[in-house]
Amino acid sequence: MQEPDQHVSPIKTPKQLVIVVVLAFVVPIGLAILLSQLVTSGVKGAHEDDSAVIARIQPVGQVVLAAAAGPKGQLTGEQVYGQVCKTCHETGLLNAPKFGDKGLWAKVIAQGQATAVGHAMNGFNAMPAKGGNPDLENVEVERAVVFMANKAGANWKEPAAPVPAQVAAAAPAAAPIASAAAAPAPVAVAAAAPTAPASAAKPDGKKIFESTCTVCHGAGIAGAPKFGDKAAWAPRLATGIDTLYKVALSGKGAMPARGGNTSLSDAEVKAAVEYMAAAAR
After folding, report:
1. pLDDT category of residue 48 using cuts at 50, 70 and 90
2. What does the pLDDT read at residue 36?
């Protein structure tokens, strides 16, 4: 009597063989896809929209003039551009129309001066109101818009300054006080002079960072090493503080010279660099 074969294959038909082969490929691929979805799912923040980043950092991401040239309201359009607008408009950061690019500015110019100025005053897309500097007077913002638009082919008229009327109104009020107590004033000034020696205080790096550098370094925009990110700052710190000074003063890549704020002195720029470097050590 013949004994039954102990090694008989469970696959008995060609159809069963095809099913086994298909499953041998499909099951591992399916598992691999599920694992990749599990690993890459969720919001990591690496692909956030630039406008969302700007909106999130607005409470601390304001650009404030470090040293205004002249009385408030007297900055020219070119000065406002150099101190505030240049950060984004010089390189086209965050889709800002690049300075002097007639093709990009054509759409803005077509909307008219009033609309363009309104966008600059109130903010538009990723651009914050007044370019992130609420201390600017409306007339200064409009001058900056006119300056940039005219450089791109527009023929807009710059607004007149309202300051002369204020000065004229203030002059009569000051006259009686000056005439009533003119004598003691020189004495007070003379006495105060020796007690107020000029001092070269070191600039506050933290304030300069918050007024200028945080626009990009606060969120790591345009490849800027994020403030406090030791891994991102490590290779830069390895080049030495003098190299960091040079890059900040002269600009590199998407970063303009002096962070786009041309009113900053060398000492102020270096103080901001030292503040950021210290936070990343």
Report:
1. low
2. 81
The rounded distance, in Å, linking the Cα atoms of 128 and 157 is 24
Residue 253 backbone phi and psi in degrees, to 5: 65, -130
149 and 113 Cβ atoms separated by less than 8 Å:
yes
Task: Please give the C-alpha separations between residue 241 and each of 204, 208, 214, 227, in angstroms, as whole numbers.
Answer: 17, 18, 19, 16
CA distance 145 to 80: 9
The single-letter DSSP state of residue 195 is: G
> Can you tell me the distance from the alpha carbon of 164 to that of 138, in angstroms, rounded to the nearest whole number?
16
pLDDT digits (tens, 9 = 90+) for 146-160: 999 999 999 999 887
Q: What is the mean pLDDT of residues 109-131?
A: 88
Cα separation, 68 vs 75, whole angstroms: 8
Q: Is the pTM of this model over 0.90?
A: no
117 touches 141 (CB < 8 A): yes
Average pLDDT over residues 191-205: 61
224 burial type by CB count under 10 A (0-12 exposed, 13-18 middle, 19+ buried)? buried
* Two tokens, residue 257: 């010279």
CA 163 to chain CA mean position, Å: 30
SS (H, E, C) 35-85: HHHHHHCCCCCCCCCHHHHHHHHCCCCCCCCCCCCCCCCCCCHHHHHHHHH
Residues whose CB falls within 8 Å of the CB of residue 51, separated by 6 or more in sequence, listed in order: 94, 125, 126
What's the half-sphere exposure (Cβ side, CA atoms, 13 Å) at 268? 18
Interval 50-92: pLDDT, tens: 666 666 666 554 554 444 445 567 889 899 888 889 888 888 8
Higher pLDDT, 166 or 215: 215
